[in-house]
Amino acid sequence: MADHDETAPAGINPAVPSVARMYDYYLGGKDNYASDRAAAEKMISLVPNIREVARANREFLGHAVRLLAESGIRQFLDIGTGLPTQQNVHQVAREAAPGARVVYVDNDPIVLIHARALLANNRDTVVVQGDVNEPKAILDDPAIREKIDFSRPVAVLMLAILHFVPDDESAAAIVARFRDAMAPGSYLVLSHGYTGEIGGRTDQEVRDLYTTTATGSVKPRDHAEIAAYFDGMELLEPGLVPVDAWRPGRGRDAVVDLSRPTVLGGVARLP
After folding, report:
1. Looking at residue 4, what is its pLDDT?
2. Alpha helices by DSSP H, 71-162
3. Are 265 and 60 a contacting pair, CB within 8 Å?
4. Is the dihedral of CA 214, 219, 223, 227 positive or negative?
């Protein structure tokens, strides 16, 4: 486990919590510092099911990637990928589709260091520095264009990243920019923080906590706001639901609990 007194790699301030490293802590990882663990523990005190939600979000990613690879998708663009863990996108995709091409995009220096080390000898996968707030720069990046042919179907993955874009119009514009670049038959895989009936005081404490991180803010949204990201696309069943309830083939009439804070996830196809 990274220690607060250790010398951090260039560009990393271990005294400032990182949402990627906090997420790593929720998942039981060891690539985090004392500041990350303290912030994560505070988050756990506010939202006790946050570890379970993080694990369910990771499982949702695996279910979605496997389904799309089995459905013929051979290109995956993962934006805000986070620290490598078990069953990463390229591993899941290639179980169903050997030779599938994967591009990971993140702006966290420690994520880039670990991901590049993991994928140093993997010619079908590349890790690129990029910020979700700059979709044009991501789409125009030569390293991405070398791996992803946007004239053919692609899966764009945006897992637990848009709630770190606090402005509603900006978040919607980001999704629209990627959606406009996708060829017919492409898919959007998206998950997003959802407050449920968390209560105003706790909601504010959660937001205040994230102001202390390098990201600087968090903005959970309601079901209708998240569903709007899929406008013009065909949502796969079971629709937009808590990530622990998302399973391929599950009917939309399945009962899901929208009262508790969680992460909602959905997969949609561009017709």
Report:
1. 43
2. 89-96, 109-118, 135-140, 142-147
3. yes
4. negative
CB 96 within 8 A of CB 123: no
Q: What integer pLDDT is reported at residue 252 of this predicted model?
A: 56
| Integer angstrom CA distances of residue 211 from 5, 136, 183 | 23, 26, 37
* CA quadruple 97, 238, 235, 174: dihedral sign: negative
Q: Which residues pair with 78 in a beta bridge?
A: 104, 157
Helices (runs of H) and strands (runs of E) counted in the chain: 10, 8
- Tell me phi and psi for residue 161, to 5 degrees: -120, -35
Residue with tokens 């993955």: 157
Q: What is the pTM of this model?
A: 0.91
Pull the structure tokens for residue 126. Answer: 């590349």
Return the closest-CA partner of residue 38 out of 55, 25, 57, 52. 25
User: What length is written for the chain?
Assistant: 271
**Mean of pLDDT values over 23-47:** 94
Pairing assessment for the beta strands 101-106 and 125-129 based on DSSP bridges: parallel
Distance from C-alpha of 24 to C-alpha of 40, rounded to nearest angstrom: 10
Q: What is the CA radius of gyration of the chain?
A: 18
Helix (H) or strand (E) holding 203: helix 200-210
Residues 52, 67, 236, CA angle at the centre, nearest 5°?
85
